[in-house]
Design brief:
With about 280 residues, the protein is mainly beta. Helix content is about 5%, strand content about 45%. The chain contains one helix and 22 strands. Strands 6, 7, 8, 9 and 10 form a five-stranded antiparallel beta sheet that branches. Strands 11, 12, 13, 14 and 15 form a five-stranded antiparallel beta sheet that branches. Strands 1-22-21-20 form a four-stranded antiparallel beta sheet, with no helix packed on it. The longest helix has 10 residues.
Amino acid sequence: MKKISLFILCASALHIQAQRTIWPPVVDFEVESSNLILNPSIGYFLSEQVLENEDILLKVERTNIDREGDWMSVQSFESKINTSVVGISKDADTLYLLGTYSKANPSLKGLSFSFFKDGFWSDPIRLKVKGLSSRTPFYNIYVHPSGEWCAISLEKSKKQSDDVFISFKNKSGGYFEKPVPLNQAINSPNSEITPFITHDGEFLFFARANISEDSLNYDIYMSRAMDRSLINWSTPVPLLEINSAGYDGNYWCCKDSFAFYTSIDDSGRFRIYTTLAPRVL
């Protein structure tokens, strides 16, 4: 109990001085941006633009970080299929993707991976998650850089809200096992989405709906691992200084003491924001 109480006491003051700022590479964008995934020198995120005919153009964007730590210009990631990046390997030579993985059959959707070889990215290769299929309703995945496990948010059933699960890689079979739900401290009657676990497995961040009927009213929460199982977590606390009255989610941490997340700006667009990471990290 002492460990939990101390964590809650520290977490309640995590962002007393924190301020949120739109992430520099997307300040001048006339499009929405979200779902930033980073490794030490490269980042991928989603951009969404409404065209004149009201069609929506969804693209994966890429930005590099130079030796001085400055963000370089944004470039579109050459992907010929509708997908998003949900994980990057330690060496940045493998991308984990969520969305369509077959050019021949766009209805085939799910988790896949692409590897970099001879200057090109391979076509996506399906990565099976037991219990999930192309017919599974909307879900979100974060794949750890080791590729050994992934955190997933999905509906338990049509009548129940989203919960957070963990799935471990079957090393001999090359697929992810059936997702296991996290403990009740994390999964509540309200919806929990966009889970992210720090690389050392010590901290979990996710978004929780404040009102079950409002799909755009989410706050970011933080929890600490109670053991090494990745299933048992402490009572989560909200990140009060960055949570807004609307949507906050897709939290990623940390680079040079900074964290990144998706929120809504004054114009109603989704934007990527940056803020100081919690001091306990």
